[in-house]
Amino acid sequence: MTFLFASAVDTSCPRLADGTHADAMDRGGHYARWEEDLELAATLGLRALRYGPAYYRTHLAPERFDWEPIDAPLARMRALRLQPIACLCDGGMPSWIAGAHDVAFPVLFAEYARAFARRYPWIRLYTPIRDITGFARREATASDGTVDERRFAMALRNLAMGHELAVEAILAERRDAVIVHTEQAEHVHPAGAAARATAERANAIRFAALDLTLGRELAPGVAGWLTTHGLTAHDLAFFRERRAPEQRWLGLGYAPGSERRITATDRTSTARRGLGFSAIATAYWRRYRVPLFHAETRAQPRQALSWLRRQWEEIIALRAAGVPVVGFTWAPLTDGARDGHSADALGLADSRRQLRSIGAAYAELVARWAPVVDGDARQAARSA
User: Fold this and answer.
1) What's the rounded Cα separation, in Å, for the pair 208 and 222?
2) Residues in contact with 154: Cβ distance below 8 Å, sequence separation at least 6, in sequence order
3) pLDDT digits (tens, 9 = 90+) for 364-376
4) CA angle, corner 28, sides to 26 and 29, nearest 5?
5) Domain residue limits, the chain
6) What Rg value do the Cα atoms of the chain yield, rounded?
């Protein structure tokens, strides 16, 4: 088994209040410089790239798709032997779909997934919908920051159902496809004894999207929370069905801020000393028992090198403990513009495609460790 050292092109494109989309590939210059970006990923020695079309630009209407913007980049990735982790929806709904609350979305999205898999039959790895929990929370958050729990629950339902119908559609086209679930590895710590119940509830709900899509029993109290806010017994029966469980990976994103403290009144702050990725990932592994993929990490420049070392040490610790970790991702590949004038500074390369020190360090890590982790995987396979 080949260990996947990966990065990602930021494909997020959330719909704004005025109906337009904040298209990260446009703002970050990827549409104009995709050839440079793919060559950069190959030069770094990466084996995979989370990548995909902007959903809002591609799904034009029921059974109408525009594949032209993605055809050439995917063909180039194939030529470079850079494996796509096809991300089909990263927060941007077409204007003709009424967001994550549109009851028609699950079926429409499955049509789109089937058409994609049919057009690109050589692609094996898929993330149908990235970060269902975060997507649903954004769809339910008002301008003042309050979350409508019914809207949150129903967005979870629609997105999880769309994800699983898309899985069925993809598997109908490629039977050996691997589904890479991608969620944030979050953990909430109580800020004192009075906040313990609040933290426990938050930590239970954080599993809901994965429990639904992976067909696992919901955490205590979550089924009641979902049904109170609109899910039906038929919905829950649909989610209890497990679809190709042996073809799932659990992609977990973890970055500074993934752990936070919460008070009894729902006020939060960053946890200065958290559990760390390996402890949280182990809890997810024990719950789901599918291979883990460190799907995304990043840090500001002043702490990026130390953060990379720390995250890789956590991967080594997980593998030493017998947890099957199949890949590691630093993302994004290049800086993304927050607006028309400034860039974030989180990429392996900057907006001019100049490699940062973190990019060079990641390339060195890949070159050093790829033969080692590949050898570990082959030895494990022989011993199985």
Assistant:
1) 7
2) 101, 229, 230, 231
3) 999 999 999 986 6
4) 65
5) 4-383
6) 20
Cα–chain center distance at 309:
22
Element (H, E) at 314: helix 301-320
Q: Which whole-number Å values give the CA distances from 340 to 284, 304, 343, in the listed order? A: 38, 25, 9
Average pLDDT for the chain: 92
For every residue of 234-298, DSSP letters joined together read: HHHHHHHS--SGGGEEEEEE--TTSEEEE-TTS-EEE-SS---HHHHHHHHHHHH-S-EEEEEE-
User: With contact defined as beta carbons under 8 Å apart, do 343 and 335 qualify?
Assistant: yes
Strand partners, 7: 49
Tokens 């598997």: give the residue. 171
Place of tokens 């599918």: 290
C-alpha to C-alpha distance for 304 and 301, rounded to whole angstroms: 5
Looking at per-residue confidence, does 15 or 229 come out higher? 229
**Long-range contact list for 241-244, CB < 8 A, 24+ apart?**
241/215, 242/214, 242/215, 243/164, 243/167, 243/168, 243/171, 243/215, 244/167, 244/171, 244/179
pTM score, whole prediction? 0.94
Question: What is the number of alpha carbons within 13 Å of residue 51 lying toward its C-beta?
Answer: 29
Nearest to 182 by CA among 47, 55, 295: 295
Q: What is the DSSP letter of 81?
A: T
Q: 126 is written with which tokens?
A: 């898929």
Copy the structure tokens of residue 187: 């953990």
pLDDT in tens, 120-169: 999 999 999 999 999 999 999 988 889 999 999 999 999 999 999 999 99
Number of helical H runs and strand E runs in the chain: 14, 13
DSSP secondary structure of 281-303 = HHHHHHHH-S-EEEEEE---HHH
* 286-306 pLDDT, tens digit each: 999 999 999 999 999 999 999
| Fold annotation for 4-383 | TIM Barrel (3.20.20)
Query: How far is CA 133 from its chain centroid?
Result: 10
Angle at 37 between CA 91 and CA 110, to 5 degrees: 30
pLDDT for residue 380 is more than 50: no
